[in-house]
């Protein structure tokens, strides 16, 4: 889920920037991070030694105090210590200068300092999603390895990697793997520079190593999954009779249709009033049903689930009043701003199970994508996700705190789910849906401005229970070249995942709209 780092719940603790002392694993000397966050050198003084600045890119302090990936309260110090120790152990002939950087100014100060200490290259670890370090460091022209901390910095990482590839940033290679050996193989490529090789040769070697270490495709045969769908013409006709309600702020206004679907902005206060008016007995019955149907409830009190059920009833009421079938809410902005008083996650889960649409973060494009293809497939729900790419497993992981558990439509089978707190802030209630395996999935997104639909397909192979980042994490193996998946994140991080092979339906709808289709793999 994407977050505005300036939004903070009123009772969430806030800490001022503090000095951070990190052990440099290359020696016993400790490194003090000044207010400029410039780390000191702590290895051999031999002028022939390859000197590499290791930058840990953060928006916040070492113990995360705001909701973001991985989660509030996450302590990055053990992660940093582990990386430092691993680098020191495996490359004793290199000098690593470990540094924490929180913003663009820190990156500029690092480059200024490095003019004096003659740094030969950089490793930039993207630890969470908000910090803007890489573009400044890349301007150095020195060889750079850009590293994603899985379920931590992926949102920022994928956006920058897409820019690197599309703009042919010649001095930056990248690692998107949960396996430490893959990072070490990339770092070893600095030996090319040490031996007099060029930056281009270094980047190509990092790329080659990533490709070599990515497993070959597994068995991509999928279970049979036959479903009925509308024609492109009929889908478009029905879409024009539907309506999306967008809840972004306290301003109600009309808007231009998106992909032919009427769009209307309504206020937080209207949704909040509907929540207040919800029948408490009915909310209690729904909450009891959710609990009984779940496999477990973890750290969520029953009154919070009742609160979520009242929000679901409120959203149903608002949809009925506006003759709409889809609602998308700026959920965290509304909740932290005190405009709404319940998380809509469980309500979205219920709406999507019913063939309606509940969508996160007031993401209009993803909501329209859900409306279009739920309509075309006659009830199959999609779910918005923040994808993560792990080349060590040749997987893309679709992660979010909202997902249905009836992926084949309202009349289809159900899959298990747990009720848990919303992951990034450990509050409210949401679901971890344990989604079906061995089926074809189609993940896509529409763009009204570009008049295009982007999509890729993958076989569902696992559900990841990792505590970091969003609760539902469907792991899938892409059908096609996984390297191509790194190129299209200028479309934004979100994708919408459906079960089924929707390729035919995508092209049919695009033909009727006069749009183009872009394959991501």
Describe the structure.
This protein has 521 residues and is an alpha/beta fold. It has two domains: 20-213, Response regulator (Rossmann fold), CATH 3.40.50.2300; 232-519, no CATH class. The chain contains 15 helices and 22 strands. The protein has helices spanning 77-90, 104-117, 134-138, 154-166, 180-187, 190-194, 199-213, 232-239, 268-277, 280-293, 302-321, 331-336, 345-353, 364-376, 503-513, and strands spanning 20-23, 30-33, 50-57, 94-101, 121-126, 144-148, 172-175, 244-247, 253-258, 261-266, 296-297, 326-329, 357-360, 383-390, 395-400, 417-422, 427-433, 440-447, 452-463, 472-478, 495-499, 516-519. Strands 14-15-20-19-18-21 form a six-stranded antiparallel beta barrel. Strand 18 and strand 19 form a beta hairpin. Helix 8 (232-239) crosses helix 14 (364-376) and helix 9 (268-277) packs across helix 11 (302-321). It is globular and about 75 Å long. Mean pLDDT is 91; it is low at 1-47.
Short description:
The chain contains 15 helices and 22 strands.
Spans of 5+ residues with little confidence (pLDDT < 50)? 1-47
Major sheet summary line: 6 strands, antiparallel, barrel
- The side-by-side strand order for the widest beta sheet comes to 14-15-20-19-18-21
Total helices: the number is: 15
- The number of domains is 2
- DSSP strand count: 22
What would you call the shape?
globular
Rg over CA atoms: 24 Å
Alpha-carbon distance between the two ends: 23 Å
* Structural class computed from helices and strand pairing: alpha/beta
Strand content: 15-25%
The helix content, as a percent range, equals 25-40%
Oligomer: single chain
Q: Whole-number average pLDDT?
A: 91
């Amino acid at each position: 889920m994407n977050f505005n780092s300036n939004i903070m719940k009123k009772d969430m603790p806030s800490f001022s920037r503090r000095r951070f002392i990190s052990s440099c694993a290359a020696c016993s000397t400790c490194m003090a991070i000044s207010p400029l966050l410039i780390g000191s050198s702590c290895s051999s003084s031999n002028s022939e030694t390859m000197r590499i600045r290791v930058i840990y890119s953060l928006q916040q302090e070492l113990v995360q105090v705001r909701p973001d990936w991985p989660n509030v309260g996450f302590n990055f110090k053990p992660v940093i210590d582990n990386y430092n120790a691993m680098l020191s152990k495996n490359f004793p002939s290199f000098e690593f200068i470990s540094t924490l950087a929180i913003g663009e100014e820190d990156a500029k100060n690092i480059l200024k300092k490095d003019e004096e200490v003659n740094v030969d290259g950089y490793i930039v670890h993207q630890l969470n999603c908000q910090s803007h370090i890489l573009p400044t460091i890349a301007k150095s022209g020195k060889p750079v390895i850009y590293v994603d901390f899985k379920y931590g910095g992926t949102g920022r990482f994928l956006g920058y990697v897409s820019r690197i590839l599309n703009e042919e940033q010649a001095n930056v290679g990248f690692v998107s793997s949960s396996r430490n050996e893959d990072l070490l193989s990339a770092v070893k490529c600095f030996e090319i520079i040490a031996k007099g090789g060029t930056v281009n040769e270094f980047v190509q070697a990092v790329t080659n190593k990533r490709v070599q270490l990515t497993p070959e495709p597994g068995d991509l045969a999928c279970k049979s999954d036959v479903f009925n769908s509308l024609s492109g013409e009929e889908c478009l006709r029905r879409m024009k009779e539907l309506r999306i309600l967008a809840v972004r702020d306290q301003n109600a206004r009309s808007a231009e249709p998106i992909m032919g679907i009427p769009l209307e902005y309504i206020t937080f206060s209207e949704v909040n009033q509907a929540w207040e008016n919800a029948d408490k007995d009915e909310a209690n019955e729904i909450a009891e049903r959710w609990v009984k149907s779940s496999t477990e409830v973890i750290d969520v009190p029953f009154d919070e689930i009742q609160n979520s059920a009242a929000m679901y009833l409120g959203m149903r009421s608002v949809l009925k009043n506006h003759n709409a079938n889809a609602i998308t809410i700026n959920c965290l902005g509304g909740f932290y701003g005190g405009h709404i008083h319940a998380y809509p996650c469980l309500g979205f889960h219920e709406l999507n199970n019913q063939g309606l649409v509940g969508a996160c973060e007031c993401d209009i494009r993803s909501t329209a994508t859900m409306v279009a293809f739920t309509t075309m497939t006659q009830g199959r729900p999609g779910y918005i996700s923040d994808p993560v790419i792990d080349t060590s497993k040749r997987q893309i992981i679709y992660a979010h705190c909202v997902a249905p558990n009836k992926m084949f439509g309202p009349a289809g089978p159900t899959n298990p789910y747990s009720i848990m707190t919303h992951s990034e802030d450990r509050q409210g209630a949401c679901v971890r849906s344990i989604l079906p395996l061995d089926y074809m999935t189609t993940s896509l997104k529409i763009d009204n401005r570009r008049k295009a639909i982007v999509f890729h397909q993958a076989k569902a192979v696992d559900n990841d229970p990792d505590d970091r980042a969003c609760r539902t994490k469907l792991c899938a193996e892409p059908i096609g070249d996984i390297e191509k998946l790194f190129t299209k994140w200028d479309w934004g991080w979100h994708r919408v995942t459906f079960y089924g092979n929707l390729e035919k339906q995508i092209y049919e709808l695009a033909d009727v709209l006069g749009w183009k289709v872009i394959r991501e793999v």
